[in-house]
Amino acid sequence: MYFIRLACLGILFTHSKASYPGPDYEKLPFNTIFPGPWDSNIRAPSNKSQILPVKIFNFEGAVSGAEAVLQDAERASGVSWLISPGGLITFEFAENIGGRVCFEVDDLKNDPFLILSYSESPFFAGRECDATGDRQARDLPLSFSIKRTGVNCVAPGYIRGAFKYLTVYMSTDDTPTEGGYWHDGHSAPQIQVVKSPPWYSRIGQKFLGSKSLKNETGEPAVSISAVWVNCTAFPSQPNGRAYTGYFDSSSSLLNRIWYSGAWTLQLSTLNPNEGGSLIDFNRNFDHNNAPQGAWYSNYTVASGTAVTTDGAKRDRMVWPGDMTIAVPGIAVSTYDMLAIRNALDVIYNNQYGDGSMPYAGPPMGAFGEFSDTYHLHTLIGTYYYVLYSGDLDWLIGRWAAYTRALGVSIGKVDEFNLLHVSSGSDWNRWGMTGHNVEASAILYEVLKNSIQLALWIDKNETSTRGEAWSATRERLQNGISTLYCPANGMYSDNKGRRSCTGPEKVLPQDGNSWVLMSRAFTSQDHANHVSSNLRQRWNKFGAPAVEFPNVMSPFASSFELLGHLGAGNPDAAVELMELMWGYMLDGPGMTNSTTIEGYRVDGYVHYPAYWAAARNSHAHGWSSGPTAALMQGVLGIELTSPLGATWKIEPKLTKWLSYAKGGFATRLGKFEVAVELMKSLRTGRRAEMINVAVPSNTSGTILWGEEAVFVTKVHTSTIGARHRFWRFVDSETATETEGEGSDQVNIWTSDMEGEWIRDEEWVKPRVEERLAGVVDWDLLEEGYLLAGQKFIGPLPPP
Description:
It is a single chain. The protein is α+β, with helices and mostly antiparallel strands. It has three domains: about 1-20 and about 635-760, Maltose phosphorylase, domain 3 (Sandwich), CATH 2.60.420; about 55-230, Jelly Rolls; about 245-270 and about 305-635 and about 770-785, Glycosyltransferase. Helix content is about 25%, strand content about 20%. Strands 2, 3, 4, 5, 6, 7, 8, 9, 10 and 11 form a ten-stranded mixed sheet that branches. Strands 1, 12, 25, 26, 27, 30, 31 and 32 form an eight-stranded antiparallel sheet that branches. The model is unreliable at about 1-20, about 190-215, about 710-720, about 735-745 and about 790-798 (pLDDT under 50).
């Protein structure tokens, strides 16, 4: 073993011509790129066309043999599930899933129909669905006639985007007394029924199998030998388990969190023709006559074959605000960049005449809906798409539209050196007005990205209205500094009523997080104070968003994760992941598999943006922050040019982990980092070890502690494809017996790794106990009124 001064070391990370070429996002791989034991954490099914329930959650009345249709049942047993009037059964799936429900019918009599109800949360599993709309507390269950033996599937328009619980029951008489609505083309099987036209015409029902026999006497019944779901999400992936990235660590909880984010993003990626759950808003354009409380998924929200959306159950449309979190999360897990490009295209294609970007994609955009922050999130999504995909041709084609949009935001930076927002719309938070810190910090980040984008495509115009983008950044940084409240060690929401001295003073989670993650702060002391004070506000269930009373927002908290990393406090980031996202997996009413849109400060699964708790989305892409943050923060892999032709690696194991490893691939190949605490068998000393692998013909810098390895292109044969470094983490002084040529740096490469073993004596620090949040019920009611103003366009009468 030999010690080295790292600042002087040049190393080649150039592999042979036979090195891994990297995945093509136009044709994603069928097999996972990093196979290993961590694959057990992947939530995607092995066969997405036939997902079976795993247990019976509840049953009532006239049902028997339902265990025969479960995943682990013996198929050759010959036992079928029999259901007749009054019978009800609720099936539970292993994960939150989505798709079309199908039944294999063995026998039927007397024109039976089943009533189907769906729920993501166990709290809302039963005769009524959870909710996609906001006109009533619950969606209507679906009445579905069983016409034939053989396979009976609901039509494509009745894809339910996310559910973990499927309730199937049969009415006690011939009429749908449960308040449901009929599947298109189906009707109640009795003379007294008044026929009505189908409530939408795009969806048709197809049946397989032979005709049933009519029996005019007796009650209806159905014998079913199989129930399954055909999942239509993530259409770009031929195999949903073929991940292009992975993460593994000493924390099994953190591992589950990473994969839950990836699975959430997969479920939220759709066939563009299967979107649009805002059925009342859709009526402005498709003129549907659906009854109040009905639901469907047949609105076209983008072009192409796949598109990433906000959520799996709702709203199933493109919301640019999600892109800052979702795009890098997709890039490091499944590399479905095509779905991202289609989402960006639909926003650019609907850009307003003045250069503003729409608040969201179709069906929105026709009424001038706009948000200053979501406008900027589109530009951030553009940067991340180009960074990970390397699609410079696409950027060149969009550059004029991009710079027009950038000019809209720059034009709102006034004499106070802050962005003066013109729209109150954001992520449902309160008080988006005036000279806002969040919007100003986002623009500060966008300007940095814009300078990089211009460089990558050799564009010289890096100014707007005669002012260089770098100069606008400096002005914004100066303006943001005026919002710092020394007495609180945080930034205020704006210069007006919500300022440091204003009557409605607010120190927002989103704005303070954005100052940190964009590094818009002017002193490290300020950054340290903000990070520390954000942490002090945590409760038992995570980080509250004080700018939106009563709310725990995984969206704003995803920004907080990145903010702690930007402030140089990765310990706080990992601690918050385990606290908040751990609760989001294992807390009461959660899915144990996907990330929820939001919840109350007391931990209940009600997101106060909506008056009905059942409307909450339990698979929302904006809540998947840890999936990208763990790659960037713990493993420290940062691409600094398209596809990672240049990069920076700065691993931070944190006090919460004894090892972490993972990586992802772009078209250039694999980026992989492992960090581990080790112990010497010979001396008993403790060290930290890192392994790094990068694609051929790339270059970058490794930052580790206070030292740096400057990596250049030299000869492969000198070192090899993978590179390992060590450093002591105990307080002892190096001795001559511990290495030849030792020096004060105590970082070395080694060919004696056999003497080092994993440090099994490491003990995870004790987690701080925190109190639950307390709901302010008056403000909760006030929030419902504000949330109702989110959509600017006219809503048709119910």
